[in-house]
Amino acid sequence: MKQLGDRLRDLRESRNLKQTDVANALGISNKILSSYERNISMPTIDNLKNLCEYYNISADYLLQIDVGKNIKSSQEAATLTALSQEQKQILSYYGRLNAEHKDAVRGLMVLYHKEQQRKPG
Length: 121
Hints:
mainly alpha
């Protein structure tokens, strides 16, 4: 069974990020992040919160808490692990965009989707 550190490492690697990228974004040292990923130490509550916000995940996922009412989070996590490498790479690029560019990408995706729905075949 995977531990919190294993999940953190998987999240970081699935987004093609370096430990230094994540550590800098969170305002912690690379050594601290490394100790989390190697299951040597556990994050403080504040760092756990920051990790969840950074990766846009629930603490339930990281802490392996299974609550019946949180089925949606589990399904989303399962969907993320089922993504192809190309899809993960695209999401990684999207995650690095600023808010304005993210809005533009979403708008284009909606536009293309609607156009595709109108065209037969």
